[in-house]
Structures are given as C-alpha cells and as structure tokens.
Amino acid sequence: MMKLLTESLLVGIITLVIGSIIFNLSVNKVNKEKNKPSGINFAFFITGFILHLGLEFLGFNKWYSNKEYITGICRLNDLGEIKCKLF
After folding, report:
1. Residue ranges per domain, the chain?
2. CA 71 to mean position of chain CA atoms
C-alpha cells in the first residue's frame, strides 16, 4: 500500500509540473498571474494522484505491463518456437 501511495504522489507531482509548464506556455505573458485560477496547481496534482490510484485499482497498470512483457518476448523470439498471441 505504501508503494502505491508513493507512486501516486510521484505521478501527482509529475502531472503538476507538466500541467504548470503547459499552462504557463499557453497563457499570455502580460496577464499570466491575473488569469491564473487560484487552485490550478492543486487540481493538477490531485488529477495525477487520483488518476494513478484509479487506474491501479481498475487493473489497467497490470494489464498494460503484462501486454508489454508479452510483446517484448515475442520480439525477442527469433526461432518462432513460442506462439505469441497478443490481447
């Protein structure tokens, strides 16, 4: 459980940084602070945090990891001995 919370915090921080960079690049420089909503940084962080938790609980991370693992094995298999069936 602690690993999941740590991962979620990290994803939240990454979402906050990327969201802030994109927001700052897209807003007019003159009115940047005037037009910035007050809770936008918190919203960016919570979005990443909750999105990671939700995808983990829905099993998307496990599904995606298994799919990538099988794809990698199929690419490494030069002899064709293993039949690769992707999802």
Report:
1. 2-58
2. 20
